[in-house]
Amino acid sequence: MKYLSLILISLGWSQISFAAPPSGEQVYRQYCAGCHGAQLQGGLGANLVDDTWLHGDSEGAIIKTIKNGVLDKGMPAFSAGLAPEQIKLVAQFIKSQNDTPSSGKLAEQNKSVTSEHYQFDLKLLTVFDSLTWAITFINDQEYLATERDTGNLYYANINGTYRTIKGTPQVWNNDQGGMLDIALDVNFAENQTIYLAYAKENVNDNWQQPKGMTAILKARIEGDKLVDKQEIFSVDDAFALPSGRHFGSRIVVDDKYLYFSIGERGVRPDAQDLTKPNGKIHRIHLDGSIPSDNPFDRANAYKSIWTYGNRNPQGLARHPSTGEIWSTEHGPKGGDEINLISKGLNYGWPVITYGLNYDGTSMTDKTHMPGMEQPIRYYVPSIATGGIDFYHGEKWSKWQNNMLVTGMGAQELRRVKIVNKQVVEEELLVKDFGRVRDVAVSPSGDIYIMITRDHKGHMYKLEQRN
Ligand code: HEC
Hints:
Blueprint: H1 2-11, H2 24-31, H3 33-36, H4 59-68, H5 84-99, E1 111-114, E2 119-128, E3 132-137, E4 142-147, E5 153-157, E6 162-164, E7 179-184, H6 188-191, E8 193-201, E9 212-222, E10 225-233, E11 251-253, E12 257-262, E13 280-285, E14 305-308, E15 313-318, E16 325-329, E17 336-341, E18 377-379, E19 385-390, E20 403-407, E21 412-419, E22 422-431, E23 435-441, E24 447-453, E25 456-464
Antiparallel strand pairs: 1-2, 2-25, 3-4, 4-5, 5-6, 7-8, 8-9, 9-10, 11-12, 12-13, 13-14, 15-16, 16-17, 17-18, 19-20, 20-21, 21-22, 23-24, 24-25
Helix pairs in contact: 2-5, 4-5
């Protein structure tokens, strides 16, 4: 006993309560930060330090919100997952964070990183006015960027200038829907052709509520506008859904095929239903026609399906040397995955998953089933994976063919080295600097990331220090 109290004294007062229940801050980090952000700055969940309170700012009102949730807005109820004492502590923690001055809450604009192989700076190039979803490089200097809620498409330069391309399709700006991914045709330099993935509303006067689905548009950029527009994928009204969630929609193009993802749109069982387009990765020809060797050429099947059982793949990229298609799947809490995507396979959602419900209870006890693929890597806790790219180039040669993985909720950029379908090395490069939504390697072998902070897109270049 004497010995124990000596240890406690030497650790200092702040440690004396170590046998007590976790602090409000610990509860926050474990259950809330994934949606409300490490600095309480918001993300999937509301900003909790901006003096704007939809449900009241008293301790009692906050406790009530945490207990009951705001279920139709995506705030889970914690009355079953947390003890009343924990709820009280986390509410007090939120209150205390609002009493500290707001300066210092925001991350600084540039950041220095020391990684295993390189020292580099994150250099801010441009701040876009709204949430930027995807970036893709045209040449060493120029890139295209999409803005989700406004539906804007930008033709941008790394010198910080950009202009808006007119004639973009009307997007369905519903929660996670809007203008999403952008990809270039392999012959873009000659034909200026691009492919856009976006949330499209199926307009139908008989419906009480709007419904929609992910769609793919092919078009050419001519000067400042889109021309020769051709919708190469969209769904009939029967498949449109009212949910504003899980549009997936990353695109990979080669000289013959276009692969793209659609999340399950919040309807979990649909991911296993081969008659439905959601919860799948699709493969079509560049004119939208269905390749004759697609895997599900049977009556009633949705013919463009390439793989199924995919929850919400928000990362899709082709390996530079093997040509394989890889995806990151935005899972439930604790169920993000990296998958190698191969023809006709079932990736298991929602039957098998490592995921948890948002209140921390287990979703299913099944992580394996015959006929269902295991992820190459899964993340517990979740990092909320976004876009991916493989490094290919001279400048960061020690990272050759490594996958760069973004994390939105966890505010991360990771480098993942995969050999023979196994992760052999993984390094956290950037942490707590905003939601990293997309990453792109330019033709010159430079690396760029798009970070969301304060609902604005921040474009950064990774710049090596000598
Ligand atoms: C799955 C994402 C998610 C998680 C996890 C989550 N929240 Fe929320 N939370 C939300 C969303 C979305 C809202 C906005 C609700 C609305 O628009 O009415 C919200 C709203 C709130 C509000 C009300 C803010 C206001 O303006 O009145 C509080 C307080 C809150 N959350 C606390 C918490 C706490 C504490 C935890 C952890 C125990 C937590 N949340 C976990 C998504 C989440």
